[in-house]
């Protein structure tokens, strides 16, 4: 049951130790929250799990192997990393269609995920005119496109309105209930309370806690 395994993971940017000897595992069937203040090293860790950043030391594996994003593709791991990564001049549908094509995914998945994230009515609009919440929904659609067993979401709630927050929580719970492995980062404990059942907490690149939400809350 260890889908994501991080061992002694370390990343140095010049003089900055962004991630320091971090070890934790993420299991299927749960929503695991990845909590820490801004600058704690969450995005850097997620990027190393995805193979987008090379660790200075240590390793991050998915299903036992390092995950090079360019080879494994969206069928294996879906991720929302940066709400701003779609080309502003493209429509939402065109963005997803290009992603589907480059990952050899069926074209029908585009309409399915647009519907699933509530963007069916905005499919032909340019992403440049989208609100942050709509761009987050599009990023979530990209993560879902390949129907992957492992999903990483970096600060997914940013820019969502309260209805969107409720929706995304329900989505994460449903993905976990389907047996998928879901890792969700946030800098706010309040966001984790109705979302995650386990917490990996980091500060200044180091592990602070790795336990159930109830255990973490009980310690204060
Ligand atoms: P978080 O996602 O928790 O906000 P990050 O992983 O983005 O944290 O950043 C961790 C630390 O690494 C911060 O001090 C940040 O300034 C630094 N950092 C992140 N990316 C880079 C980069 N490409 N070059 C230099 N420093 C970086
Ligand atoms: P139903 O239970 O009626 O099949 P679902 O929401 O489970 O409804 O599935 C509807 C469509 O959405 C299906 O094509 C399915 O492949 C897709 N789908 C469901 N869950 C996910 C998911 N987590 N990621 C990607 N696609 C999904």
Automatic annotation (TrEMBL):
<protein>
    <submittedName>
        <fullName>ATP-binding cassette domain-containing protein</fullName>
    </submittedName>
</protein>
<dbReference type="GO" id="GO:0005524">
    <property type="term" value="F:ATP binding"/>
</dbReference>
<feature type="domain" description="ABC transporter">
    <location>
        <begin position="4"/>
        <end position="220"/>
    </location>
</feature>
<keyword id="KW-0067">ATP-binding</keyword>
<keyword id="KW-0813">Transport</keyword>
<keyword id="KW-0547">Nucleotide-binding</keyword>
<comment type="similarity">
    <text>Belongs to the ABC transporter superfamily.</text>
</comment>
<dbReference type="GO" id="GO:0016887">
    <property type="term" value="F:ATP hydrolysis activity"/>
</dbReference>
